[in-house]
Amino acid sequence: MNLTLNNGVEMPALGFGVFQTPPDETRAAVTAALEAGYRHIDTAAAYGNERQVGEAVANSGINGIFLETKIWISDYGYEQTLHGFDKSARKLGVDRIDLLILHQALPSEFDKTLAAYRALEKLYADGKVRAIGVSNFMVEHLTALLDAATVVPAVNQIEVHPYFQQREVQAFGAEHGILTQAWAPIGGITFYRDSGHRSTLQDPVIGEIATAHGKSPAQVMLRWHLQQGRSAIPKSVRPQRIAENLDVFDFELTGDQLAAIDALDTGKRGGPEPADITLANFGMPIPEN
Ligand code: NDP
Questions:
Q1: If you measure from the C-alpha of residue 136 to the centroid of ligand 1, how many angstroms do you get, rounded to a whole number?
Q2: Mean pLDDT for the chain?
Q3: Is 277 among the domain residues?
Q4: Count of structural domains within the chain
Q5: What is the rounded average pLDDT of the residues 7-17?
Q6: CA-based angle 52:54:56, to the nearest 5?
């Protein structure tokens, strides 16, 4: 199933995520994903595994795999971001990237964020990327970006799972033609997890819906994203789960079931607070190779 971005580019709705997949496991994970049928991979300069993603894609011999990656904040600024593209393209082994996004807003240095976005616009104008976008942008960041931008971002990749849904950010995006792409789509955030954290995978409401369809909780959550028009990029390193997470096209959640999942929102973020991202605390450099 494809989604059409705001510039007409088609993107497979379900992509395969590789955050926290160690470089030495990435080739096998991406190979398993391609064998299972994924045709969209989401990586990032900051994940340290773009090279292994590129190798798995090249070794597969499959054409037309949609590659998405992200510029890290230490590469923000016009020239730096152009160079960030060169680094990612080199590691991925491609001349052109399908979707290149800014990984975070830098709220305290928003000028730098805007300069980075101008570089994405330049790469887009030059045909080096097929679409551009952002990640972890809240409504105030999107508003400031739209004031300055000439190209409306195609996607905003944000944390969305049943326990944290960010409906106001999604609605703002929808109003402006920005597709919401859900990270941690099955709630699998493995950082900033407090001891009282409940897993969406163990949620009784989701469990009951899963049983009713003969599907797993992960499959129910992915179906919820797709039926609500979002892209989602689940991650796993296990071939059986990788395949399971793509096997979501043979059932349909009812309106009541979608509403029951909507009602699970806790308003509690699992990932870092976007307002707190600074170069001082998150600005690790991205290696050349
Ligand atoms: P996910 O919601 O995809 O969950 C992944 C976790 O769930 C892993 O621990 C995985 O373990 C486990 N899992 C996967 N499938 C199943 C299943 N079917 N049943 C039970 N457990 C399962 O969370 P992520 O945080 O990995 O997010 C997905 C992707 O989103 C990332 O890989 C990355 O591409 C992107 N992302 C982007 C961010 C951003 O700031 N833009 C931030 C975080 C993520 P195992 O691997 O052992 O199977």
A1: 16
A2: 96
A3: no
A4: 1
A5: 98
A6: 70
Helix runs in the chain, H state only: 23-36, 50-60, 78-92, 110-125, 139-148, 167-176, 204-213, 217-227, 239-246, 255-262, 279-282
For position 270, what pLDDT does the model report?
87
Pocket of ligand 1 (CB under 6 A): 17-19, 42, 103, 135-136, 157, 183-190, 201, 216, 218, 233-238, 241, 244-245, 271
Q: What is the pTM of this model?
A: 0.98
The reply to whether 207 falls in a domain is no
Q: Which atom of ligand 1 is nearest to the CA of 242?
A: 15
Segment 148-189, tens digit of pLDDT: 999 999 999 999 999 999 999 999 999 999 999 999 999 987
Domain that holds residue 184: 12-196+228-238
DSSP letter assigned to residue 286? P
Residue 99, domain member (yes or no): yes
Number of Cβ within 10 Å of residue 69's Cβ equals 30
Beta bridge partner(s), residue 101: 70, 133
- Å from CA of 124 to ligand 1 middle: 29
